[in-house]
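Working notes for the structural subgroup meeting. M.R. asked for a predicted model of this chain before we commit to crystallization trials. I am recording the input and output together here so anyone reviewing the notebook later can reproduce the run.

Input as submitted:
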Amino acid sequence: MRNRPIKPGNWIVAVLFTLSVSVVPAEDRIPSFGVASIFNDGAVLQCEMRVNVWGTAKPGETVTVVFSGQRKSAVASEGGRWRLVLDPLKVSSEPKLLTASTEKQKAEIRNVVVGEVWLATGQSNMVQPARVTEEGREALKTVHPKIHFARVPLRAGAPHISPCTKEELAWGEFGPQHNQLAAVAFHFAEELQPKVKRHVGIIQCSYGGTAIQSWMPEDLLLSIPCGKWIKGMFENERKRGYGVDEWKKEIADYNAATAVEREWAIKKQGEKPPQPKRPRQGNPFYNKTPTTLYESMTKEIIPYTVRGVLWYQGEANAARPDEYVELLSAHIGRVRQDFENAELPFYIVQLSAWGPGEKYWPAFRDAQAKVRDSVKNTGLALSLDKGNRTNIHPPDKKPVGQRLAYLALNDTYDIETPLAR
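Returned structure, recorded in C-alpha cell form:
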C-alpha cells in the first residue's frame, strides 16, 4: 500500500529567513535574544539526525548552544537571525537542560528529551481532539509521560500578526491538563511509542475546513499550472487597497453573520437570514486564502527536525481530484525542502467514506493513491472502511492512527508489523 522509503538522511540545505518590519526607529527593530518559541520546556528533539536550533539576537552577536555534551555556536545575521545544527543525538529519556547564551544573556530550556518527532498536519480530521474517541477519553484519565506534543495555535494574518509565544507552542505530556492533541495523532503515538521504546513528540499544525493551497507558499503555487491563478487574486486584493482594519472587519462581519445563520438553523424562528458573505480570498486573515496558513502557522516551526509527516487533508479539495495530484506532489516536495530532508517520510490518510461525498470522493481517493505511487517515501493509510455515512468527521479514529503507525513501523523503523499488511 506504499512506496518503500529510503532511510531519512542528514540533509542540510540553505534556508532563507525573512523578517517583516514596520517603519520604526532602528533600535526598536533589533531582535531581542532568544531561542525560537517551539523550543520550550518538555520539548522532544529528534534522535539519530542532525538537529536544527535557531532564534534571534543582535546582528553580529555570537550565540552558543549547549546540550547533551555538545557545544555549538553561530553568529546572528544582519537581520538578527541565528541558526546552528547539533550533531545526531542518541536516544535519551533523561530530561536534560538545553542552554543558549550570548556574552550577556542566557536562555534555559528544561526537561528536554531525545526521541521521535512527527509533524501532524491537515484540516479538521487532524484537529478533532482525542476526546472524540472512546479510547481517547479513557486515555485522558491519566498522564502519558512518554508522549509529548506541541500545538501551533489556529491563526491567520501573517505578516500582520506577531510570532507565536512559547506559551502558545508549549510542549507537554499528553493527559488531562494538556489534552488538545488530535485523536489521529494521539493514537498514532500511542501505537508507535511502545514499539520504538522511546519518547514520541508530536507537533500539530492543522486547521479545519482548509484547502491544501492554504498550506503552500506563494512561490510554489505560482510554479505549478493549477496554482498560477493566485497571481490575479493577490493583484486584485492589492487593487482593493484594504489594510489590516478592513481585513479584520471583513472577517468579523462574516463570523457574526455565520453565528446568526447558525442560531436560526437551530431555532427556526423569524425570517431566514441572508447567506453570509464570505471574505474575499486574498484577505490574509481568512484561513481559506491560499498561502495564509503556511505563512501564519507552518513558518512558526520550520525547520524543526522531524522524523516524518502525517497528512490528513483533502475534503476541501475533493471536487478537483486531478488538480490535487499536482498540488500534493508539489506540497510534499516543499515540506521536504523546508524541513531539510529530501526523503522525509510523508504518510497520507485516505478520505473515509461519507454519504454525500461518495458521488465524487472515489476519484479523489484515486488521486491520493496516484501520489503514493509516484512520489517516493510516501504511504497511504486506508480509512475507507472507517467512515460515517452522515458525519464528515468520523469518530472511529483509533484505527486510522494505528494504520499510520503501522506504515511508520514497517517502512521508517524496519519493525515488521503484520497488521499493516
